[in-house]
Amino acid sequence: MNGTFAGSLSAFGIDEEKATLFEKYAAELNLFNSAYDLVGADSVDDILTKHILDSLAAVPLIKQLMAKAENPAKPRIADVGSGGGLPGIPLAIAFPNAHFTLIERMSKRCTFLENCILTLGLKNVEVLNTEAEKAPQKAFDIVVFRAFRPLDEKMTKTLLKLPAEGGYIAAYKARMDKINAEMSGITKLVPSWCAKSLEVPFLGTGKEERERNLVIIPESDF
Length: 222
Fold this sequence. Notes:
The protein is α/β, with parallel strands linked by helices. The protein has helices at residues 2-9, 19-36, 44-56, 59-66, 88-94, 107-120, 153-160, 176-184, 207-210; strands at residues 76-80, 99-104, 125-129, 140-146, 163-173, 194-198, 212-217. A seven-stranded mixed β-sheet has the order 3-2-1-4-5-7-6, covered by helices on one side.
């Protein structure tokens, strides 16, 4: 898988030399997964495909959102409900000039995240041990989350308080039918949004198994 994984990074505009860092991170997730309940995977290769490549599939879109930031040279990105650091840590490796805040309410997972940051030598990441409701407001250019909570009215109100003026929320989601059902319940809060299709290598053959989308709030014109 290693050579194949490295080769797939170029499709997202990521330097293949960073493959070693992603693989090191996958090894950390695999090592501590049973103790911290971090991801649904049972091998390093499984983590690389289902979680790290899945996180990196949005890199071209995130890059375009970053260009719209108040300071495009050093955008501020929050990963809400970061868990084991997904998608925040893979994105932080991909974008070393951006500053990432990993927001996670569970202390034991924050311990894992802090250890990962040290192990990987990441200088652009901090961990915030708190609930999303208590995170800094209007502080981020982009707010991302993956495998977090559904966008119900309560959660949406919380998330909408986090981006700075002109900022975005970028939510990793799967099937469009479920996205449409989810978004239909919050139209008063989110009148403008779009979903961009993501291509994740090696996920499988079935359409439902492979379907991935990035929901962007508000709608972006790229």
